[in-house]
Design a protein that fits this description.
Length: 150
């Protein structure tokens, strides 16, 4: 009886695809891939596909029972952000999803804050809406990581 090679069983679950890309886009991708430390295009494309899926999947998911995690990155004017009624103080209403926060003073007017979140996707979306309604925000980005499905 022949023993199954791990590599062979893994490759049987993979599908080979081909795609057409403009030369300049592929050149930029290859350069970015190398700068990011990827050894080959397949791994870099897989990583990019996962990121694309995670960043779009959570936006659609509204069944109320789905869980996720991510990091919210906010750049804001510290003279305006947090002066709105119920802004930062009301983050205490979201302690069920806020895991950690980091605050960095960039200069006299700008602060960078990261907020790590984990919990129900619907609750995370409510928090993002709550934060985005504050004045003084210069940049607001959510990097979502899907929770593995069992």
């Amino acid at each position: 009886m022949k023993k199954k090679n791990k590599e062979n069983s893994k490759s049987s679950t993979l599908r080979r695809i081909s795609m057409s890309l403009p030369n300049t886009l592929l050149d930029q991708f290859d350069k970015s891939m190398k700068n990011a430390g990827f050894a080959d295009r397949s791994k870099a494309i897989q990583s990019s596909l996962y990121e694309f899926i995670y960043n779009n999947e959570w936006k659609e998911n509204d069944d109320g029972n789905s869980y996720g995690a991510g990091v919210l990155v906010i750049l804001y004017d510290n003279h305006l952000f947090g002066t709105d009624i119920g802004s930062l103080e009301n983050q205490h209403e979201y302690t069920d999803i806020i895991v950690s926060t980091t605050h960095l003073h960039l200069d006299q007017h700008n602060c960078l804050e990261t907020i790590m979140l984990r919990g129900k996707v619907k609750r995370i979306k409510n928090f993002l809406k709550f934060i985005s309604e504050n004045r003084g925000i210069k940049s607001l980005k959510m990097h979502y990581v899907g929770m593995p499905k069992e």
